[in-house]
Design a protein that fits this description.
Order of helices and strands: HHHHHHHHHHHHHHHH
Strand content: under 5%
Structural class: mainly alpha
Number of strands: 0
Largest sheet: none
Distance between the termini: 37 Å
Helix content: over 70%
Length: about 475
């Protein structure tokens, strides 16, 4: 929740940060891009570090480091320092985020993971709902630096508790997993250049830099796959990616987050530029999305137990697609009720998908690979939004009238581009619905095989073994 809150409030205070530090728009953009590249490129490796050295230890280091970096941003003298410290926040955020799922996987029986993951999702939704309002209030009355002070004390308390509180740790079976530093480096390069390209194309188009970035991303990704197939102790075990459940669930998370964040990006411009709502009323109009994420998360855990992953994820993806389609039908005459209803569908579908698909990924990963599974899930949740926003921005710019300046043109030109853009994002959600049909129909609950007991001696009374 601390990490999610930090990300949502930043978007609100960026204009004030730019004015106070006399920064350019490109420099301010890098306060977000630098963080995103750092966290996305390190998530899987951070998960493997947790598998090897303990998720609680990595969680504590990541949380305390995140607190120190946040305090540093609040005291930064210039925009260069802010960018560097935001990159540091990304590194520490990468350490702590997979550890949260790794700790849950180790602490709860597989058939009870749904509700803990649901509460985790509800916390993210609550942060998304409170972030813009809280960030706006703090920036207005105390300045933009106060936003970063907000997360320091909670993160310090949580980090200290993670070091002090002792929790049972399951005994590791077999040798400690290898780190595979070459594989981690190749994956980091591939993801870093992928994210950089996705962020850069909407801003500057296909320039030499963005084209080179895409080539490097593809080459590094191919080298990573080849390396993982040949190495004896790969960073991402083949049993994870070959799983009939993990691969489709990760694809669903990418499709769902791309459709939702791309649609939200377009809808924000619609509310403020077409309906002429100020930022506060715009945030209140879209508030049902975050509220439904909070509400749908625990309900989805119940659905997961009763209907199984396949029905839950497929139904939720269909609801998300319907919500994005409803957003595409909005126009100048649409009131807050129509927009709010569309946001309700989007929030309900996305909140349910997050819980159910994450539960599939984490549940089907062995405890020894729980960190890597958490890193893959978090990577999907970072790449998906970046892909969705890049797709939405590119489509809006391409489809808008030549007389307009991107997505900020006159109402008619904006709406003429908004409808097909959101329709394509609906198709992305529909693709996720097809992937959802590949998830397992039920969550298996394997039980350990009992140890064979010696036959009792003739004439002796047999009794069941004592419980462990």
């Amino acid at each position: 929740m601390v990490v999610a809150l930090d990300g949502t409030v930043l978007t609100v205070v960026q204009p004030a940060l730019r004015r106070d530090l006399d920064a350019s728009f490109a420099q301010v953009q890098w306060t977000s891009t630098g963080y995103l590249i750092a966290v996305a490129s390190l998530l899987v490796f951070a998960g493997r570090l947790g598998d090897r050295y303990g998720h609680r230890r990595l969680f504590a280091v990541g949380t305390l480091g995140f607190a120190v970096a946040s305090a540093g941003v609040a005291l930064a003298p210039g925009v260069g320092s802010v960018i560097a410290l935001r990159v540091a926040q990304g590194v520490f955020g990468a350490l702590l985020q997979p550890a949260t799922l790794g700790m849950l996987r180790a602490a709860f029986p597989p058939d009870e993971l749904g509700m803990p993951i649901a509460l985790r999702t509800s916390a993210i939704g609550l942060a998304a709902a409170a972030g813009p309002v809280l960030g706006g209030a703090l920036a207005t009355h105390l300045g933009w630096r106060s936003v970063f002070v907000l997360s320091v004390v909670p993160a310090l308390v949580i980090g200290v508790l993670a070091l002090v509180v002792r929790v049972p740790v399951p005994r590791r079976e077999g040798p400690a997993p290898g780190l595979d530093l070459p594989g981690a480096g190749l994956l980091a390069v591939a993801l870093a250049f992928l994210v950089h390209t996705l962020v850069g194309v909407p801003e500057s188009g296909w320039t030499t830099a963005t084209a080179a970035g895409s080539v490097v991303a593809v080459a590094a990704g191919g080298a990573f796959v080849r390396h993982e197939r040949r190495t004896a102790r790969p960073l991402v075990p083949p049993r994870l990616l070959r799983s009939a459940a993990v691969g489709p669930a990760l694809g669903v998370l990418v499709a769902a987050s791309a459709a939702m964040f791309g649609a939200l990006y377009v809808a924000t411009y619609f509310l403020q530029d077409v309906l002429a709502l100020d930022p506060l009323h715009s945030a209140l109009t879209s508030l049902p999305l975050a509220v439904m994420m909070v509400v749908a998360a625990p309900l989805s855990a119940v659905l997961l137990r009763r209907a199984g992953p396949r029905r839950t994820v497929t139904g939720a993806m269909a609801v998300l697609a319907l919500g994005v389609l409803a957003l595409s039908r909005l126009d100048q005459a649409s009131g807050p009720v129509a927009a709010g209803g569309a946001f309700v569908l989007v929030g309900a579908g996305f909140g349910t998908v997050m819980v159910a698909a994450t539960a599939v990924v984490v549940r089907h990963a062995p405890v020894a690979d729980a960190g890597v599974a958490g890193g893959l899930q978090q990577t999907a949740m970072n790449v998906g939004p970046t892909l969705g926003i890049a797709l939405a921005t590119t489509l809006m710019t391409t489809l808008a009238s030549p007389a307009t300046d991107g997505p900020r043109g006159p109402d008619d030109a904006f709406l003429s581009a908004m409808t097909p853009t959101l329709t394509i994002l609906t198709a992305v959600a529909a693709l996720g619905t097809l992937l959802a049909t590949r998830t397992p129909p039920l969550i298996p609950n394997p039980k350990p095989n009992p140890k064979p007991q010696p036959n009792p001696a003739p004439g002796s009374a047999s009794r069941p073994p004592s419980p462990r």
